[in-house]
Amino acid sequence: MLLKWLVLVASVTLISAGSSPERIVGGYPVPISEVPWQAGLLYLGKFICGAVIYSEKIIITAAHCVDNPFDTLYSVKVGSVWKTLGGQHARVAVIRKHEDYLSAAILFNDIAVMRLVDSLIFNADVRPIPLADSAPAAGAEASVSGWGEIGILWLQPLSLLKTSVKILDPNVCKRSYQYITETMICAAALGRDACRGDSGGPLVSGGQLVGIVSYGIGCANPFFPGVYANVAVLKPWILNAIKQL
Q1: CATH 2.40.10.10 domain residues, the chain
Q2: Which of 19, 176, 199, 214 is catalytic?
Q3: Fewer CB within a 10 Å sphere, N or C end of the chain?
Q4: Catalytic residue list contains 89
């Protein structure tokens, strides 16, 4: 059992979205107005992860995306399909990671919230998205977006990509990953997936945020679906953490 756990940790460490800029596999370009809640997370001005707009001053991302020191060295970019150009840029004031998040190698409770120094200006290209109260049923359609790798020679797009996936039954997901918990939700589709660099980005179903890109083994691997932080289960923590920022 210990050996299996160590193998899993090693595999996740290699492909977790925060370890390097990640990707959407099997995606297609979309205007930012189609996913106006999409944000890019930067550290020292360099793109590292995706993120999601919750309000004018609150951004949600994966905890493993904010493991670097000094909160104020992070910033976000919104309102543009380009990875580093255009849109609005805002500095981060403070970040709060889930207390039970351990590390990028053990991705339980992979969720974080951050408060911006200045408020975002909402328009057709910059909008928040509501948090889901319950996880979608297995088989429900969902979408994921980001600037991560596209699964070909580690290529990364300059423009935002989006793709569709389907929510998986947790028991099905556990056949691939033994350590799936209630704070995780899985989604997959043949040839379509989030990838390295998409971490922290949105999994959306029914117009609500249902997941945050967390990890997977490979990209669009038919034997290993994408794993996301389960927003519905983590919603009480998210709302409480926002109050404390």
Answers
A1: 36-128+235-244, 141-232
A2: 199
A3: N
A4: no
